[in-house]
Amino acid sequence: MAFLHFFVLLVLSSLGVDAAVFTLQNRCQTTIWPAIQPNGGQPVLMQGGLELRPQESKNVTTPERWAGRFWARTGCTFDVNGAGTCTTGDCGSGLHCRGAGGEPPASLAEFTLDSPLDYYDVSLVDGYNMPISIFPYDNASVCSSVRCDADLNLHCPANLIVRGESGETVACKSACTAYHSPEYCCTGQFQNPDTCHPSEYSQYFKQGCPTSYSYAFDDQTSTFTCRNADYLIIFC
């Protein structure tokens, strides 16, 4: 019995007692390729990328105190070795991003776990490519969901549109991504909340997804906390 107790403690310590499970669910009508990028010094999960067919779900387990982001890639073509590219969210290294970030615009689900609370948000600061929502579960009855289930590609301002090969709108840039100006990117003389304010473009994102980050200092209505929860991330 003593040995069994020691073995259980050893397993828990190796996994991290506060490890979280992320359930990635594809509610789109087409296949998507979720990508995962850890923050610096954090482990890469699932080699940084995977395939999700329509209505398919997969679980990703993180160690305690993990931090990073999830997004969906669309319009991908990969060969049997995983080499290839995507129309949106491409990370430049094939199916498995292996820690690389995605090419904006892409809708992001961002997490910092066990600090000591979990902090999470949906960010459209770099633009939008598809609906994405976060639903905490397990020990999370008082934790808020973050829903960005609007189709922001539908009425994307003309100067922010990213088009696919057939001319269809596949993503919507943020003003920062489109213009790279300090005013829109909250850099230079605009790098504080007193000087960087919402633009007409960020307000378009905010109206469609009120609980998502629409620009760099959109913290008050866009950052959420929970404790000891697992998370469902829904695409579409």
Give, in order, the helices and strands.
HEEEEEEEEEEEEHHHEE
CATH topology of the domain at 17-151 and 209-235: Thaumatin
Cross-sheet strand order for the largest sheet: 3-1-14-9-10
CATH homologous superfamily caption of the domain at 17-151 and 209-235: Thaumatin
User: Mean pLDDT, nearest integer?
Assistant: 91
Give the radius of gyration: 19 Å
Question: What is the CATH first-level class name of the domain at 17-151 and 209-235?
Answer: Mainly Beta
Distance between the termini: 48 Å
Signal peptide: 1-19
Family: Belongs to the thaumatin family.
Pfam family, one: Thaumatin
Organism: Deinandra increscens subsp. villosa
Describe the 3D structure:
The longest helix has 14 residues, at 2-15. The protein contains four helices and 14 strands. With 236 residues, the chain is an alpha+beta fold. It has helices at 2-15, 175-179, 182-185, 200-208; strands spanning 21-26, 33-38, 57-61, 67-73, 77-78, 84-85, 108-112, 118-123, 132-137, 146-148, 161-163, 169-172, 224-226, 230-235. 41% of the residues are buried. The termini are far apart. It is 14% helix and 27% strand. The protein has a domain at 17-151 and 209-235: Thaumatin (Sandwich).
